[in-house]
Write a structure and sequence with these properties.
Blueprint lengths: L3 H11 L3 E4 L2 H8 L7 E5 L3 E5 L4 H7 L6 E4 L6 H12 L4 E3 L6 H11 L3 E3 L1 H9 L3 H22 L8 H14 L10 E4 L20 E6 L2 E2 L2 E2 L2 E6 L5 H20 L6 H14 L11 E3 L6 E5 L12 E4 L2 E4 L3 E4 L2 E6 L2 E4 L12
Parallel strand pairs: 1-5, 3-4, 5-6
Antiparallel strand pairs: 1-2, 2-3, 7-8, 8-11, 9-10, 12-13, 14-17, 15-16, 17-18
Helix pairs in contact: 7-8, 9-10
């Protein structure tokens, strides 16, 4: 999978001769290879991936030679010399760079190296990555299925006396067993009063009868992330716990119903937030309804209160409202959805319609 052609079309629109890509995720998006310690240069009619001996064989196998040339730098052919040669061959006079991924020092060093004034061009990649291709969506779904399989197995072994850290370890182990390439982020597993912390860190806290357990985790497949959250009860749940869970679920469904390509992220967030506010829990939903994801777990655009960007066709976004009552408990339910012109397609299949009591 690579997106060289799509980037080349954007270069023409932006009036640039080439784009120099240094960020690992953007390199993977462009050339289809994730581990290069070097450069990807995309010019209007050619592209180069410049890497070293550690990755050259894998890069040659992964990269489509019809769209991108793979070159190896070594003592006799430095990385900078190969880049300069490619720039000359492509006749590059206007060169874009990822101003949001480079430090100021790195940006200036690349200008010195290339002899060109770099033009900020991160927006080319940001805009392209916001709208997923069907091939990318297939990768995201595959990652999601891995996470769901891990959750299904982990739910069967959660019991009073287990620690948060033990549950997190089970999720990670089972995701790997089902084919994950790693965690899309460090898993969040919290129980009891800690469930009121949206980003609580798994510790040695012990699960007890009557506790909520919130699990927020994700796997990687072909470099693409999954993300999901489920809140379950152990043994039994109070009426208040059930009411908060039902409120969060209604809010999530309202946000999903409002989600489609062409609307602002704030509109999606607002549909969910109104449900929580009308139930009297408005002050206890502090974060946004959702964030886009893909090669990174957090990508723009976002479906939050300040999300003024239009959600594009093919955008993949989380749907994760929550209510967090300090000192008591919290609930979050998270799915992933694809935004189409006609509405949202939820790709998460794990059960949620009723509070699961283990």
């Amino acid at each position: 999978m690579n997106n060289i052609r799509r980037i080349q079309e954007k270069l023409i629109e932006a009036g640039l001769d080439a784009l120099l890509i240094t960020d690992e995720k953007n390199q993977r998006y462009a050339a289809g290879f994730p581990f290069t310690d070097g450069y990807v240069l995309v010019a209007r009619e050619a592209a180069w991936l410049i890497t070293d001996s550690r990755y050259i064989e894998a890069a040659q196998q992964a990269v489509d030679p019809a769209t991108c040339r793979v070159q190896m730098f070594d003592r006799g052919h430095s990385r900078s010399a190969l880049l300069q040669e490619a720039l000359r061959e492509a006749g590059v006079r206007t060169l874009g760079a990822e101003e949001q991924k480079l430090s100021h020092g790195q940006y200036l060093a690349l200008e010195t190296l290339t002899g060109l004034s770099l033009s900020p061009a991160q927006s080319i990649l940001t805009e392209l990555r916001a709208s997923k291709t069907e091939e990318e969506i297939a990768c995201l779904i595959e990652a999601q299925r891995i996470s769901e399989a891990a959750l299904e197995e982990t739910l069967q072994i959660i019991r009073p006396g287990m620690t948060e850290r033990e549950v997190a370890a089970e999720l990670v182990y089972r995701m790997l067993r089902h084919g994950s390439e790693g965690n899309s982020f460090d898993p969040i597993v919290v129980t009891g009063k800690k469930t009121s912390m949206p980003h609580g860190v798994p510790g040695d806290e012990v699960i007890r009868e009557g506790d909520f357990v919130t699990m927020d985790f994700g796997s990687l497949k072909h470099g693409y992330c999954s993300d999901m959250t489920r809140t379950v009860a152990v043994g039994h749940a109070t009426d208040e716990m059930k009411n908060v869970y039902d409120t969060v679920l209604k809010a999530q469904l309202a946000g999903i119903a409002a989600a489609r390509a062409g609307v602002k992220g704030s509109e999606i967030d607002g549909a969910a937030r109104r449900v929580i506010e009308e139930a009297g829990y408005g002050p206890y939903f502090g974060h946004g309804f959702g964030h886009s994801l893909g090669l990174d777990i957090h990508e723009p655009p976002n479906a939050g209160p300040s999300g003024e960007a239009i959600m594009p066709e093919g955008c993949v976004s989380s749907a994760e409202p929550g209510i967090y009552l300090p000192g008591k408990f919290g609930v979050r339910i998270e799915d992933v959805m694809i935004l189409r012109a006609e509405g949202a397609e939820v790709i998460t299949k794990a059960p949620k319609s009723e509070l699961i009591i283990l």
